[in-house]
Write a structure and sequence with these properties.
single chain; alpha+beta; BirA Bifunctional Protein, domain 2; 5-stranded mixed sheet; 15 helices; globular; binds zinc ion
């Protein structure tokens, strides 16, 4: 039983382990269309918690939800030239209705700037209409040809896209940081995933943006992944779309705009970061089930022990608790089943615990067992969950720090690149960025804010000339 239920691959064999855990913990399935994913209820419940946390933060700063159509006329998508150039290879088109060819092709939205900004041009008239801050939760389609990995790289995924417009550039730039801070808080405080905040290089920025900020995250194989993005669009869209307003002096001005997005990829990052050889570990704050109570009984004491298990559950109000009273399975099977799904705390109770008014806490992250009295049980459970939350973050942070290596030239960069991301200086030229990529496969994943607060001194890792930026280079998802 346990061989089939348990994991076959160790986390050190990352991609096999990842694919296995997604299937075995019942997170998602491939569909009959390659690259499209079926999100199963357990993963969707996690997504709902992430969604709620983000949505509350957006609303607290005055962002309103909305919904736009998923079809974008070709002429509209082509209005901003850099934007369409960036997305063209991945756009899926609707060309027919039944057997009739459409007069104009319709794009299945790869992102909604163009369709939304057509409306912005109608909605915004005066400085009184600003700022305009809207968000939509929806699916998008980017027809990629890279090998799909559920959650991490799929052709259709769920996300939110925030779109904001301002009268002046400074306020707009602050909104870029506010969105990035919302994302940081959700990754670090809710999902216990440490991030690096930074800028994308010119080459890697969003198609049509003035600049792109990002959160970069370390994966278990030392590759890096983009956790989300928040872009300042300047007036790049308001000019072609004619989004203007009359300022206080009755003069026509173009708005400054941003867009920012966070996707279901974050769940793939969550699963990858915290899982272990036994399966998933879900941080308590995002876990659909925070504690599972497993009663251990025989036929003669079944009724009493089950009653005791439910009593324990009632002593944990406000926590997300599940009593596993399935009669068809042994306690051992249930332990494995919940371990695989990463429920952070298991509470075991048998006849002896019942006699002494106790229960046994078993932590999913380190396997530690503690007998606890029922008095003050809720406080004890909350404290245990809090410790698990913190310890998952520290462990992930330690891993990311240990797999960040410094390189001052290409020899060092190549020596450390397997299994690590590289911190190195860069002169800012595209030639050097491309050079590193061609020789090693590593991209500039971000220019971390923390390393670029002061002027950078030293030589570019590629050309040896004066550097202007500190960068993270890595192989990336
Ligand atoms: Zn250089």
């Amino acid at each position: 039983m346990s061989e089939q239920l348990g994991m076959q691959h160790k986390k050190s064999e990352f991609s096999e382990w990842y694919n296995e855990i997604v299937q075995k913990a019942e997170l998602a399935d491939h569909s009959s269309v390659s690259g499209c994913m079926v999100i199963r209820p357990y993963a969707h419940a996690i997504w709902e918690r992430i969604q709620r946390a983000l949505d509350d933060r957006f609303k607290a700063r005055g962002v309103q939800n909305t919904y736009f159509p998923m079809f974008i006329p070709e002429s509209l998508l082509k209005k901003e030239s850099e934007h369409i150039e960036g997305f063209a290879p991945e756009v899926a088109w609707v060309t027919h209705s039944g057997e009739t060819k459409l007069g104009e092709r319709l794009a299945v939205r790869p992102t909604s700037e163009t369709i939304m900004y057509e409306s912005f041009a109608k909605w915004i008239r005066s400085w009184r209409d600003l700022p305009l801050k809207i968000n939509q939760w929806c699916n998008i389609v980017r027809w990629e040809f890279k090998h799909p990995m559920l959650f991490l790289r799929t052709r259709e995924f769920l996300w939110q896209e925030g779109h904001t417009a301002f009268a002046d550039k400074e306020t707009a730039k602050r909104d870029v940081e506010d969105a990035r801070e919302d994302y940081r808080a959700v990754y670090e405080d809710l999902m216990a995933v440490p991030v690096v905040s930074g800028l994308k290089s010119e080459k890697e920025k969003f198609a049509g943006a003035e600049y792109t900020t990002t959160l970069e995250i370390m994966m278990p194989d030392g590759w890096v992944i983009q956790g989300c993005t928040s872009h300042h669009l300047g007036q790049n869209f308001s000019r072609p779309f004619g989004i203007t307003f009359k300022d206080k002096d009755e003069k026509d001005q173009h708005v400054y705009q941003n867009s920012w997005g966070f996707t279901t990829r974050s769940m793939g990052i969550l699963f990858a970061t915290h899982g272990d050889d036994k399966g998933l570990i879900v941080p308590p704050r995002v876990a659909p089930v925070q504690a599972v109570i497993v009663p251990i009984y025989k036929d003669e004491n079944k009724t009493e022990v089950l009653k005791y298990a439910h009593e324990i559950s009632e002593k944990l109000p406000g926590l997300r608790v599940h009593v596993d009273d399935r009669d068809a399975y042994t306690p051992g099977f249930k332990f494995n089943w919940w371990e695989l799904r990463g429920v952070p705390l298991r509470i075991e109770c048998g006849p002896r615990d019942m006699a002494s008014k106790e229960a046994v806490f078993v932590r999913r992250d380190d396997g530690k067992k503690t007998a606890v009295k029922l008095t003050g049980l809720r406080e004890k459970a909350e404290a245990a969950l809090e410790e698990i939350q913190k310890s998952l973050y520290s462990k992930a942070k330690k891993f990311a720090d240990e797999h960040t290596k410094e390189a001052s030239n290409m020899t060092e960069l190549k020596k450390h690149l397997d299994g690590n991301r590289i911190r190195a200086l860069w002169c800012g030229s595209r030639t050097c960025e491309d050079g590193v990529r061609e020789e090693t496969g590593a991209k500039i994943s971000c220019l971390p804010y923390g390393l670029n607060t002061k002027p950078v001194k030293g030589e570019c890792v590629y050309c040896g000339k004066g550097a202007s930026h500190a960068a993270y280079f890595g192989r990336s998802y």
